[in-house]
Design a protein that fits this description.
The protein is of the alpha+beta class. The protein has one domain: Alpha-Beta Plaits. The chain is about 40% helix and about 15% strand. The chain has a 4-stranded antiparallel beta sheet, sandwiched between helices. The longest helix is centred in the last third of the chain and has 12 residues.
Length: about 160
Amino acid sequence: MERTLVLAKPDAVQRGLIGEIIGRFERKGLKVVGLKLVSVSRELAETHYAVHAGKPFYPGLVEFITSGPVAALALEGPDAIAVVRRMVGRTMPGEADPGTIRGDLGVSGLRNLIHASDAPDTAAAELDLWFGPEALVDYGRAIDAWIVADEPPRP
């Protein structure tokens, strides 16, 4: 099982899309193992986007993510990082495929609704940054056997 971070950015929160976004991931079969609404501090934003420090778009990233509440989700499932990235779509909403979150709901560049971890090491670091080591919940679901098993469940 793999875990990944998803952030519903301030535009998603302000547009009332948190439920739609979570629902898409749950319908896919991913499990929510962490969820919280966060007023993002400048320090958290700068740490989260540190890899982009010094790039021309960095100040805009920090300014936008701190402009309103963010819904932070920790998701779990087989190949969760790749699955989530495909569901999110390309960074620029105008270039994102229909059927993706950004393709269906996004409008423009920085207002691209969502952040998703891009690799296992990034996901681990981001989950630790946004949730800490003790905040994620381990639990089973009756439907997991229907989602992750190699063979169908037996009646």
